Amino acid sequence: MNFSAIPRERLPELIRRSPKAELHIHIEGSLEPEMIFALATKNQVRLNYASVEALRQACAFTDLQSFLDLYYAGASVLRDDDDFYAMAMAYFRRAAADGVVRAELFFDPQTHTERGVPIRSVILGLVRACDEARRDLGISAGLIMCFLRHLSEESALQTLHDALPLRQHLLGVGLDSSERGNPPEKFARVFEACRALGLHCVAHAGEEGPPAYIESALDVLKVERVDHGVRCLEDAALVQRLSREQVPLTVCPLSNIKLCVFASMAKHNLATLLRAGLCVTVNSDDPAYFGGYVLRNYTALFDALPELGPRDAWQLARNSLQASFAEPAEKEAWLRQLDAVFASA
Ligand code: HPA
Ligand code: ZN
Questions:
Q1: I need a surface site. Which of 37, 171, 219, 296 has the fewest CB within 10 A?
Q2: pTM above 0.85?
Q3: φ and ψ at 102, to 5 degrees?
Q4: pLDDT of residue 175
Q5: Exposed/middle/buried for 118, CB within 10 Å: 0-12, 13-18, 19+?
């Protein structure tokens, strides 16, 4: 492939046409303010925001916790399986327009079961959307059930127990919410149980938490991918290990700026991570809150980092497909399509 012959101006179009996997999207974080208000009215949930505009204005975050407070308030409007279905379908339609061919959706059952919503409504609503996305949009999708790390391991174990009758609908499990003070070790037993069930394991680590959390996610939870992981650069030995083992990192550029992990996109370390040989992927995290879906995350990066070029765009899309938990035959087909996009450029 002759990447150097491709003009930089063509990147937005090429990235859009490239088949991509989105591996770090909290589906509750795709709830746009308009849908939050519509569901609040439908379900008679009182919101502390007077209007869609007021809710949008509240999206000025200082750190992860300031975001999570708003995110959990937004998710409180979801009540029945139709709500979960509608939320996920709205996401899938946007993802399809961005060229996403594979989406592995995080969802937070404890946020809903704590309010009396049955886990069955959550999962079956999302499953209905995944089936429709495959049939009508050509998106291959899977569900990753996340445990909230600010809650106890007992609560996570109970959640796993409650989800067991629906095990067939789960691709894997993850770990999210407030990172600092809630190290991966806290969830050693529940992840061990998940591995025994044959579930894929991922965890947020090294977003706000230290590099040691990335190491314990790998060594204690035995995760196959690290969500965020951007703070790995503070530990050279860890970077070497991540490179050697090709552990995928699901990086979320716009999220990192909104949550003040980096002061600006020009200061983002994604190019450094790529040059260190890491298997970096680009994702949207909570697109309704952070200013854009996956394509915006790519274009914001390429706009801000002049050292990134066409080969990097190809590499990032390729990494996302390879790091997904999709079937090998599906991956092979997407990888061929990706090469065709760049070969004809
Ligand atoms: N980090 C941790 N927990 C989350 C996030 C995040 O970026 N988004 C939704 N839950
Ligand atoms: Zn996340």
A1: 219
A2: yes
A3: -145, 130
A4: 98
A5: middle
Asked if residues 121 and 43 have their Cβ atoms less than 8 Å apart, the reply is no
Query: Cβ distance 276 to 79 under 8 Å?
Result: no
**Stretch (H or E) spanning 23:** strand 20-26
Of 250, 320, 323, which is closest to residue 285 (Cα–Cα)?
250
23 Cα: distance to centroid of ligand 2 (angstroms): 10
Rounded to an integer, what distance in angstroms lies between the CA atom of residue 278 and that of residue 10?
Answer: 25
CATH class, 16-343 region: alpha beta
Is residue 200 helix, strand or coil? strand
Residue nearest to atom 7 of ligand 1 (CA): 285
Three-state secondary structure of 59-116: CCCCCHHHHHHHHHHHHCCCCCHHHHHHHHHHHHHHHHHCCEEEEEEEECHHHHHCCC
Degrees (nearest 5) of the Cα angle 162, 143, 255?
115
Phi then psi for residue 140, to 5 deg, are -90, 130
Among all bound ligands, the one having the nearest atom to the CA of 289 is: 1
How far is the C-alpha of 38 from the C-alpha of 35, rounded, in Å? 5
Tokens (6 digits) for 271: 């190019």
Distance (Å) from CA 21 to ligand 2 centroid: 15
pLDDT at residue 1, as a whole number = 85
- For atom 4 of ligand 1, the residue with the nearest CA is 177
68 C-alpha to ligand 2 centroid (Å): 10
Q: What is the pLDDT, as a whole number, of residue 190? A: 98
Give me the sheet containing 249-251, strands edge to edge. 20-26, 100-107, 140-148, 172-176, 200-205, 225-228, 249-251, 280-282
pLDDT at 105: 99
Ligand 1 nearest atom to the CA of residue 146, by list position: 10
Phi, psi of 291 (to 5 degrees): 95, 15
The length of the chain in residues reads 345
Which whole-number Å values give the CA distances from 55 to 29, 58, 68, 200, in the listed order?
14, 5, 14, 35
What parts of the chain have a pLDDT lower than 50?
none
